[in-house]
């Protein structure tokens, strides 16, 4: 298979973030101790966790693309220009890297002659910048901005809250992205929220999937100027408008 022509993996010695799941191992005689060691999972337990996290990014890209399809169609058919800026945000590029071996260890389906998975890693695009530039805009427990109106990035957080509104409506109240965080319109470490009828107590998208956030979205989400623009045709949820400022630019 030829390497990609652009983005992650398109050049040699490409800087990446390498992630793998781990668990905390506490001393047996001190179960309540704050001291612990990092323990690695067996391949059979590690691989599903890696695939789930990669699946989150895969679906998040599709859900974000859905939002921009809605925006582009609405603005193209509008009789007047949209009265605010629309940021173009994306998630970090990522991919799974699997190490194989021919030994009789790892994961292999019965009767399969394929090489065995010895280890796996999730590779992510590096976000340039310092910790001070990294912002968490929306928590997975609340569909409204974590930031106050006078804080840097607040208007951008309002836009992200609007994307949740669009995703919720267009999926029939089943799914939306949460845990928005990152810097410079490049986001990472998100979560996919699903309605209880989707997961049915299965861990489809990981432990950060708070199903209650979806079932209570209409009563908790507070619409802002993005949601209320008539061109998007969104039903208004919530009791009041959080975007108290007339400043609709992005910082």
List SSEs in N-to-C order.
EEEHEEEEHEEEEHHHH
Main pleated-sheet profile: 4 strands, mixed
Secondary structure class reads alpha+beta
> What fraction, in percent, of the residue positions are helical?
25-40%
Beta fraction of the residues? 15-25%
Show unreliable segments.
242-251
Radius of gyration: 21 Å
Descriptive notes:
Keywords: Kinase, Serine/threonine-protein kinase, Transferase. This protein is an alpha+beta fold and 251 residues long. The chain is 27% helix and 19% strand. It has six helices and eleven strands. It has helices at residues 43-76, 154-170, 196-199, 211-215, 217-220, 225-228; strands at residues 16-19, 22-25, 37-40, 90-91, 94-101, 116-125, 135-136, 175-178, 181-183, 186-187, 191-194. A hairpin with a 2-residue loop joins strand 9 (181-183) and strand 10. Mean pLDDT is 84; it is low at 242-251.
């Amino acid at each position: 298979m030829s390497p990609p022509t652009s983005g992650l993996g398109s050049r040699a010695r490409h800087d990446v973030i390498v992630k793998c799941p781990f668990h905390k191992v506490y001393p047996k005689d001190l179960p309540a101790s704050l001291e612990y060691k990092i323990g690695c999972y067996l391949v059979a337990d590690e691989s599903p966790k890696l695939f789930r996290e990669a699946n989150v990014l895969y679906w998040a890209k599709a859900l974000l693309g859905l939002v921009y399809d809605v925006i582009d169609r609405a603005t193209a058919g509008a009789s007047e220009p949209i009265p605010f800026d629309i940021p173009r945000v994306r998630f970090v590029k990522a991919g799974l890297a699997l190490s194989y071996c021919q030994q009789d260890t790892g994961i292999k389906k019965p009767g399969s002659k394929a090489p065995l998975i010895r280890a796996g890693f999730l590779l992510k695009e590096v976000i340039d910048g310092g910790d001070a530039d990294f912002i968490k805009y929306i928590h997975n427990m609340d569909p409204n901005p974590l930031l106050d109106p006078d804080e840097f990035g607040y208007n951008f957080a309002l836009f992200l809250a609007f994307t949740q509104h669009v995703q919720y409506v267009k999926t029939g109240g089943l799914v939306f992205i949460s845990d928005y965080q990152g810097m410079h319109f490049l986001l990472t470490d998100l979560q996919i929220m699903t309605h209880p009828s989707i997961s049915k107590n299965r861990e489809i998208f990981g432990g950060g999937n708070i199903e209650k956030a979806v079932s209570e979205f209409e009563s908790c989400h507070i619409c802002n100027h993005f949601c209320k623009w008539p061109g998007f045709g969104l039903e208004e949820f919530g009791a009041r408008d959080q975007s108290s400022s007339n400043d609709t630019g992005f910082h």
